[in-house]
Amino acid sequence: EMMNSKVEEKLKKEPKSYTYIIAVIVIVLGLLVWSAMSIKKGDDVKDSMTIAKNIINGILHPDLEFLFRFDSKGVIYLLFETMCIAFLGTIIGAIISIPFAFISAKKIVSKYVAVIGRFFTMCVRTVPAFIYGLMFIGVTGPGALAGVFTMSVVSIGMVTKLYIDVIEDLDFGIIESLSAIGCTKIEQIRY
């Protein structure tokens, strides 16, 4: 109750800016009219309306035969294939990202090598997964292999970042102890 009265008082003190609101409305309406004028009418509109009707019809009246088929064209098989693509792609990406994480960790390698490793990771993470998908479809053709490759590359970017954070949060007293007793870098990493 007290908060509402404070809000109402604050709103009453605010200056009325009707010209600003009217200007925004006019600009938005102008952009809508301009956009509507650029719509092409003709066969394309008829085709798109047919596509839209087919989509709505498919949502309202699903093909149950397609839904419950157990062959390679059914939904159940395709869902299982999608989960396998995601799982396998993530596993491959996680394995490949281990060396990149060690190359990018500032506490493991020199600062200059770490900058190069982080730049590579940043470049991989910058490209959207959709672009990787299109690239791999162009190389391997549409199918599960393109999906696995896409998931692998996308996972490399994300998992490398996670691995870098974990590596840099390690207690390096243990690493120094291993170094003091004569362990090589590979033996230290293995530990």
List keywords for this structure.
191 residues, mainly alpha, 10 helices
Structural class of the helices, strands and pairings? mainly alpha
- What is the radius of gyration? 28 Å
Task: Give the N-terminus to C-terminus distance in angstroms.
Answer: 62 Å
Number of DSSP E strands: 0
Give the SSE string.
Answer: HHHHHHHHHH
Estimate the mean pLDDT confidence. 85
Percentage of residues in strands: under 5%
Number of DSSP helical runs? 10
Low-confidence stretches: none
CA-based shape: extended
Helix content: over 70%
**Main beta sheet: strand number and arrangement?**
none
Structural write-up:
- With 191 residues, the protein is mainly alpha-helical.
- The protein has helices at residues 2-13, 18-37, 43-60, 64-67, 75-104, 111-126, 129-140, 144-168, 172-180, 185-190.
- Helix 5 (75-104) runs antiparallel to helix 6, helix 6 packs antiparallel against helix 8 and helix 7 packs across helix 8.
- The termini are far apart.
- 15% of the residues are buried.
- The mean pLDDT is 85.
